[in-house]
Structures are given as structure tokens and as C-alpha cells.
Amino acid sequence: MDWKEMIREVPDFPQPGILFRDITPLLGNGAAYRGAIDKLAEFARVQGAQYVVGPEARGYVVGAPLAYALGVGFVPVRKKGKLPASTIAVEYGLEYGRDVLEIHQDALPKEARVVVADDLLATGGTILATVALVQQLGARVVGAAFMIELSELKGREKLTGFAVETLIRF
Question: Is the pTM of this model over 0.90?
Fold first, then answer.
């Protein structure tokens, strides 16, 4: 399946100079969405994932169905102040700014094998922050799975120590 054809390009979003790669047309096509999740699930199975962790918001639409396909738990990572119980936090850089992510302190058991999932790998900032949170809990990131990779931003080069899978590269 050619998922690349289903990605919409939106210029100057969320700010001037950014070309946003929008996965919503792919998500709206049931066969394409299922095929993309199934392909990422093949990768995550090979990594021996026991949990999938996804940063908000689009990491949820990749990570939650991926966890479901694997029959493992899904752990959400949220922006500061959005989780109801005790959390740990990390600040990180975006392609166009800075933010803070949090995870519940009791979200993962020590030594758990985790695949981190998101819609897009750009500079790697969001995923590195998510990896740092997982590692602070004593769990182990064994893989990272994405629908899209923006190769020119070299985020993959920053992701070391675990396998990385992307379906579409721009």
C-alpha cells in the first residue's frame, strides 16, 4: 500500500515556514489505517514490546491501536498538568519551540520492554523526551515506531540504543 499518497501537506502550519505532514487522510481510510498499524505491530512484536508508550496527541492514534494489536498495555505521555496522579516531567525542544511532557510515576514496571510510538519523527525532540521519561521509570525502550519520518531533520540520528521503524519517509 502506498501510504505516502494519503499524507496531506499543509504549508505554514502551525506557524509560517513549517510544512505540516497531516496523517488524517490516512486515518480516515480504514484499510490504510489498519495496514499501517499492522505493519508497525510486526516491528513491535520483533522487539518484544510489553508496553506501547505514546506522546499526546497524535502518538495516541498510533500507539493505542498498536498496543491493542499487540495485546499489551498503552501508556499515555501528556503535556504538563494533564495527568491526574503523581508524575515525573521532562522539558524538550520541538521543531518550532519548547514544551514539557509528563508520565505517571507508576505507569511502567521496572525493566519493562517498551516501544514508543508517534505519528512523526522530525527533530527527535518529542521522542527523546518520551524515552527519557520511560528510562526514569526504570523501563527499557526497545524500539520506536512512526508513520512518517522527515529525513532532512535528522531525528533518527539522535535515536540510539534501540530499533527505529518508519512507514513513510519525506
Answer: yes
